[in-house]
Amino acid sequence: MTISGETRASQPGPAGVYGTSAVAATATEDLVGLPMPQRPDTLYDLSRRTRVRRESGPRFPFPIPNGWFVVARADEIEPGRTKSLFYFGKDLVLFRGTDGTPYLFDAYCPHLGANLGVGGKVVDGSLQCPFHGWRFDGASGACVEVPYDDNPYIPKTATARSYPVVERNHMIWAWHHLEGSEPFYEVPEVPEFHDDDWLPIVVKDFEIATCCQEMAENNVDTPHFVYVHGTPAIPEEEFHVYGYFKRTVGMDGNFVREGFGLGLAVLRVKGYTTFVSSTTPIDEENVHVRWIFTSPRALGENAAEDAASSFTAGISQDLPIWENKIFKDPPVLRPSEKAVTEQRRWCQQFYSWPKDDQRRR
Questions:
Q1: CATH no. of 68-176
Q2: Which of 18, 89, 264, 322 is the most exposed place for a label (fewest CB within 10 A)?
């Protein structure tokens, strides 16, 4: 099962869709696989997770990917307020202008390094540093005022790094690119989230000690559904690749997953649920996952919550695998597993490789 750009679950509503074997476990010492037990509590209680890996050194041979990632729920921050965050291996500050427009900066003031999220003041569409009052435009990050200095010249280096931001699907999304390049795809609008025939959204979020690519690889690793999730057979799906976009169709067309890059997907199970997944890199070895669900109102007021609970129970089976494995490069694959090689090749377009990066391939 996976959620990073591509999503899978054990035992969602329609009978026979995924696994038929639900194994319960309540303690770490009870963890026995084939299939792995469902332990939904471990998604939210890190103390209950099974973590035995102790080797040091990087686990993954690639940097944080480029793409659109959720950095906050839209309702987490009000106009005129700031919120300190840590994503992409960086301290960040999210703020809304007084008109409600969201902006995201690297946290540290280019003047003398004060953290703009600790005491910074929103002034219209800009953020004012608490240390010396320098003010930075939200959209560009450029300094637009040094209040104690009569010299009108402000150097271009007096600029806070700003990130492209969009508010969509009840979330605030930021574009991360390691070299600062502009977005090359868009965050899709999901009409079900604004349709009165569909239920209000249900959001599930949790952190996992892994990376976007590892999670996305689960989708093409079809045999694992039998051994981790207890499905009766290896699922058959069609994969279609169009540049940065991947479309997966299964269940005679009733299961459709649209993947955008390595951190964003829209999954639809016909007549059951629609949900968006975002897998935001915290750093190179940890991610913050958010799943945003809705279901047809005709299924009942609890339908979206039930779908969310079913999918998250499934992903709890993946947690002990992801958090204790390493990335094998190259892997030892069977001829029937060529989709893994194809998936890894597709993933390369979402990385920037600095010239001095020894992991560059």
A1: 2.102.10.10
A2: 89
